[in-house]
Write a structure and sequence with these properties.
By secondary structure, this protein is mainly α. 81% of the residues lie in helices and 0% in strands.
Length: 426
């Protein structure tokens, strides 16, 4: 095994949280994943021509971004970040409280968005915001201690800053509905989306990829020189994009997208190089999704540049948003299907001294295969439905996504049941 992966595994064993803590975040993400596709199916009529405002589309987007993306990021970072910083989290009750607050806040917020109910949006935003502030307090307390994996820690700092910014903007957008504080609310909404997808989630996804991809493929962790170069380009590109949005400079937004493409090129080059040097030859269906996500990421930036320059027509914004959300969802689902049985097997190895279950033994391949095909079909159908403005095709895409989400829930439940069965038999 490569030395970077070996060091990660050894350190992870020493700093494991109780399995119930990260798994409750992952379980919530699995449930919100199903609900998001169901709500999008209900709003299929509105998706192609959506330009903002409440309703099923806005609720589905936030069920994805908060319920799936941020929920997964919280669970993964609370377990993986202590490995990068060599400092553990000693706050299991606070982590459990964050989970309860964030779950309730996300549900109330989504209900408020679906029914245009401002009071519910305000209450849900306040609860989710409090959970995010508590999470940030834990995150920053861990990051400031530094750590062995410099690149991951640096990505964590920028992700934390982006999370704080998107929280402030999100709450301001809710207030703006009753008490206008923005001269142009659309600029605030676009900035909120950029900070969420390319900022918080983007920085975390790129940073943890430098650890998770080498660990799963059994290869060397990339060195800090080029990973920090990619991060610098990503941070500069995001800053240019945000300035362009607020100042109304389309060329600045496009320039930010171009710099972002440079960051992605460096990142993907490091990932391809790592896979070429891997010791594990068969990577499984998860890496099909990872490679798909690697293709969707630069596509989202290209569409964003074209949208900023008004080259995509009236559906440019929706197409850009779809590619952006599809990139993140694809990558997170791929990582989850490897993290879940991996964490379960590590805990089982501690509890069961003789013949603990392996990762393959805890992985149900049939639901993962179903999810792979359904997820791919959903992205293709949604893209085609938006381009041609066909509600039926969009509905079929949402239905395929919902079927894939059901299959992924089957995989997650099977992993939990197999883990419990192994403990019971021991």
């Amino acid at each position: 095994m490569a030395s970077g992966a070996t060091a990660f595994l050894g350190s992870a064993t020493e700093r494991l949280l109780p399995l119930s803590l990260p798994f409750r975040f992952f379980a919530a993400a699995v449930v919100f994943h199903m609900v998001a596709w169901a709500v999008l199916l209900l709003g299929a009529d509105d998706l192609a021509d959506y330009t903002g405002g409440g309703g099923p589309v806005l609720a589905a987007v936030h069920l994805l971004t908060l319920g799936v993306f941020v929920m997964t990021a919280m669970g993964a970072s609370l377990q993986l970040l202590p490995v990068a910083t060599l400092q553990g989290f000693a706050a299991p009750r606070l982590i459990a409280a964050i989970w309860w607050l964030f779950n309730l806040g996300t549900m109330v917020l989504a209900v408020g968005m679906y029914f245009f109910w401002h009071q519910a949006m305000a209450a849900g935003g306040a609860l989710a915001g409090l959970a995010i502030l508590l999470y940030l307090w834990l995150l920053l307390g861990n990051l400031r201690r530094g750590g062995a994996l410099t690149a991951v820690v640096a990505h964590g700092w920028l992700a934390a800053a982006a999370l704080l910014g998107l929280l402030v903007l999100g709450l301001a957008l809710i207030v703006n509905q009753e008490h206008p504080i923005f001269a142009d609310a659309q600029r605030g909404a676009v900035s909120h989306m950029l900070l969420a997808a390319y900022g918080f989630m983007g920085f975390l996804a790129l940073g943890f990829s430098y650890v998770l991809v080498p660990m799963f493929a059994l290869t060397q962790v990339p060195g800090p020189k080029w990973t920090l170069a990619s991060l610098s380009c990503a941070g500069l590109g995001l800053a240019l994009g945000l300035l362009g949005v607020w100042l109304g400079r389309d060329l600045w937004i496009a320039a930010g997208g171009v710099v972002g493409l440079c960051a992605v090129a460096i990142h993907l080059g490091l990932m391809v190089q790592a896979l070429r040097q891997r010791m594990r030859k068969r990577l499984g269906p998860a890496f099909i999704l990872i490679r798909l996500a690697w293709g969707l990421l630069p596509l989202s930036l290209v569409l964003g540049i074209a949208w900023a320059l008004d080259l995509l027509g009236e559906r440019g914004g929706v197409s850009f948003t779809l590619a952006l959300l599809a990139w993140l969802l694809t990558l997170l689902m791929a990582m989850l299907q490897r993290i879940v049985p991996f964490l379960a097997s590590m805990h089982a190895a501690i509890a069961i001294k003789r013949r603990p279950p392996t990762v393959p033994a805890l992985t149900a391949q049939t639901p993962l295969s179903i999810h792979l095909y359904c997820h791919g079909a959903a992205i293709i159908l949604l893209g085609a439905g938006i381009i041609w403005s066909q509600t039926l095709i969009i509905g079929l895409g949402a239905l395929a996504g919902f079927a894939g989400a059901l299959a992924f829930a089957w995989f997650f439940l099977a992993a939990v049941l197999k883990y419990r069965a192994a403990l019971a038999s021991a």
